[in-house]
TrEMBL record:
Pfam families registered for this protein in UniProt: FliJ
Membrane topology of the entry: Peripheral membrane protein
InterPro entries per UniProt: Flag_assembly_chemotaxis_eff, Flag_FliJ_proteobac, Flagell_FliJ, FliJ
Family: Belongs to the FliJ family.
Originating organism: Neiella holothuriorum
Domain of life assignment: Bacteria
Protein name: Flagellar FliJ protein
Coiled-coil annotated spans: 7-45
UniProt keywords, alphabetically: Bacterial flagellum biogenesis, Bacterial flagellum protein export, Cell membrane, Cell projection, Chemotaxis, Cilium, Coiled coil, Flagellum, Membrane, Protein transport, Transport
Compartment(s): Cell membrane
Length: 149
């Protein structure tokens, strides 16, 4: 089995990889949240603008002004579509980064478990050696006492 010191060095390297993956995931999460916020802002703005358009329509507006409102609402719709696409891309990037972080964490944890098993194995071997030495000591002591009696 591999040397524990070597495995501990690998764990440190894996910890660095995990930390980098966590930073990338955090950045992606922030970008996703920012895109989501931008989409919500545009949706709110569009809703407010539609309410304004409806209120203006009830009080009577010129055909030209109504057309301008309508064109602006269409541009807002386009902007909403782009914002939604950007948010979906940001969500996908976040999920990919999250999976990368989970994988890095899993690899590090697997090596840590291997170290723990190796340490337990070495402790068991050491305990068996000590027990064997104690048994030999007791056996020799018994033989000496039997010869001296």
């Amino acid at each position: 089995m591999a040397n524990i010191k070597q495995l501990e060095m690998i764990v440190k390297l894996r910890q660095d990889v995990e930390n980098k993956a966590a930073k990338l995931m955090e950045q992606a999460q922030q970008a996703f949240a920012q895109q989501e916020q931008q989409l919500q802002t545009l949706q709110t703005y569009r809703k407010d603008y539609m309410t304004k358009l409806n209120n203006s329509g009830e009080s009577g507006v010129s055909g030209q002004l109504f057309m301008q409102y309508q064109q602006f609402v269409m541009r807002l719709g386009d902007a909403l579509g782009r914002a939604e696409q950007s948010m979906n891309v940001a969500r996908q990037v976040y999920e990919q980064r999250r999976q990368g972080w989970l994988q890095a964490r899993g690899e590090k944890n697997a090596i840590e478990m291997l170290i723990e098993r190796e340490q337990q194995k070495q402790l068991l071997i050491q305990n068996q050696r000590e027990q064997k030495q104690m048994d030999e000591f007791a056996s020799r002591s018994f033989i000496r006492r039997a010869q001296n009696s």
